[in-house]
Specification:
The protein is an alpha+beta fold. It has helices at 13-17, 20-29, 46-54, 81-85, 96-108, 112-116, 119-132, 140-157, 164-175, 184-210, 216-222, 232-263, 271-274, 277-287, 319-322, 357-371; strands at residues 5-6, 32-35, 40-43, 58-59, 138-139, 224-225, 228-229, 293-298, 302-304, 307-309, 314-318, 376-378, 383-384, 393-395, 397-400. The chain binds protoporphyrin IX containing FE.
């Protein structure tokens, strides 16, 4: 079976506003489409995405014998020195033993017990922010979700509060490198941010080594397995990954979720009294995933849904599309907090399954429980950021009544 060619409309405003009807058309016409713009084979079906996440035939890191197409439009991260220094040991891009060893060490410093201990801090921070807002009109992202999520990750890692603004800027600049197509301007900005971030982190790690605290950066310097410890570059990459992964996706989940409720006429007030909060969280992450796709290289020729994917070709698993696949979810367009199948793809799967899912779920639980004390209303129509990969809004003006 041939793979149909398309030009994925990742810059089209209407598509960004609501990509799901187009993704549904893709799913119905073929399980895989080749995007001429990015050179990626797009995997749209739930079962295929799940299989690929678990399969050893696909890799998140570029194979050594991989030869780039001359017209390949994706950026090469190794062309950007500091961006690469902050990426080299990024778990998301590693495979095999190095991935498993690094992940094992990081997980030891990121235990569920240590995350649960942050609940009182989250509750205090969430209340403090919501007590400060103007109830008639406030930006759910800038006035609540961003400062909340950066404070939580800052507290977990042990970075000084006065530096949070800098992290926000660095993090926003760096994550632009992960979209389907990156402009030169965004790449230059990301490189400069990565340089500042790298130097800052290197100094902070030295400081924690001299004076260890009860925080994750100190723990990352101490954990060991079979006499192996994390190197300084590994810690820097991990901390930057935790800040970026831990912050953007959580902020966008809070935003996407509240907008999803309001646009579907679901009253926020006491929602958690009517349904299990855990189901609410999983269903909202399924419905509008904050991370829409991840790339993989094909290591060995593989057949997916009857279609041959050749060795060294590249694919993108479309998490948002998989989450709306009607063969996996009954009435997938509907928000249903009593669904029997809550197993979405938004936290990934297999060896790269989200390492911070326990933290994200707790952050969302505390936030939603506080937000659901109020009737939240949209003050105006929120506008999307324009990015497809990291799905969120520029601002979300809401009021409390
Ligand atoms: C709702 C919020 C979040 C969502 C939807 C999310 C989603 C994901 C997804 C889909 C992956 C897998 C990527 C792949 O397959 O290549 C992933 C990996 C990861 N996430 Fe999250 N994430 C969230 C929050 C967090 C938080 C709060 C942290 C930590 C502070 C975090 C840390 C990580 C790390 C370290 C990985 C890499 C794991 C590996 O490659 O072994 N995430 N996340």
């Amino acid at each position: 079976m041939n793979i149909p060619e398309i030009t994925f409309p990742n810059e089209d405003k209407d598509f960004i506003k609501n990509p799901y009807p187009y993704l549904k058309e893709l799913r119905n016409s073929s399980p895989i489409h080749y995007d001429k713009l990015s050179g990626l084979n797009l995997i749209t079906h739930f079962e295929d995405v799940k299989e690929i996440q678990k399969s050893k035939n696909f890799s998140s890191s570029e194979p050594e014998d991989y030869v780039k197409d001359s017209d390949e439009k994706l950026i090469n991260p190794k062309d950007y020195d500091y961006f690469w220094k902050t990426e080299e040991f990024n778990l998301l891009n590693l495979e095999g033993n190095i991935h498993d060893e690094l992940r094992g060490l990081v997980a030891k410093a990121f235990l569920n017990r240590q995350v649960q201990e942050l609940r009182p801090f989250m509750e205090t921070k969430s209340n403090e922010l919501l007590n400060k807002i103007n109830r008639e009109k406030f930006d759910l992202l800038a006035d609540y979700a961003q400062p909340y999520s950066i404070a939580v990750i800052g507290e977990l890692l042990g970075v000084p509060e006065e530096d949070y603004e800098k992290f926000l800027y660095w993090s926003h600049a760096i994550v632009k490198m992960y979209d389907l197509k990156v402009s030169d301007e965004n790449a230059t900005e990301a490189e400069a941010a990565a340089k500042d971030f790298y130097i800052y982190m290197s100094d902070l790690i030295d400081e924690k080594n001299n004076n260890p605290q009860n925080d994750m950066i100190s723990r990352l310097s101490q954990v060991s397995e079979n006499n192996q410890q994390l190197t300084k570059d590994q810690i820097i990459c991990t901390v930057i990954l935790l800040l970026n992964a831990g912050h953007e996706a959580t902020v966008n989940t809070i935003g996407n979720s509240i907008v999803a409720l309001l646009l579907n006429n679901i009253s926020t007030k006491n929602l958690d009294k009517n349904y299990d909060i855990k189901n609410i969280i999983e269903e909202l992450i399924r419905w509008d995933s904050p991370l829409q796709f991840f790339q993989r290289w094909v290591l060995e020729e593989t057949v997916v849904s009857g279609i041959n994917l050749s060795k060294n070709s590249k694919i993108a698993i479309l998490l948002g599309s998989a989450n709306r696949d009607e063969t996996a979810f009954k009435n997938p367009e509907q928000i249903d907090f009593e669904r029997s199948n809550l197993s979405h793809t938004s936290f990934g799967g297999g060896v790269h399954f989200c390492l911070g899912a326990h933290l994200a779920r707790l952050e969302l639980e505390v936030s939603f429980q506080n937000l659901f004390k109020h009737e939240v209303t949209l003050v105006d129509e929120p506008e999307r950021t324009g990015a497809f990969g990291i799905r969120g809004f520029k601002e979300i003006n809401v009021s409390f009544s």
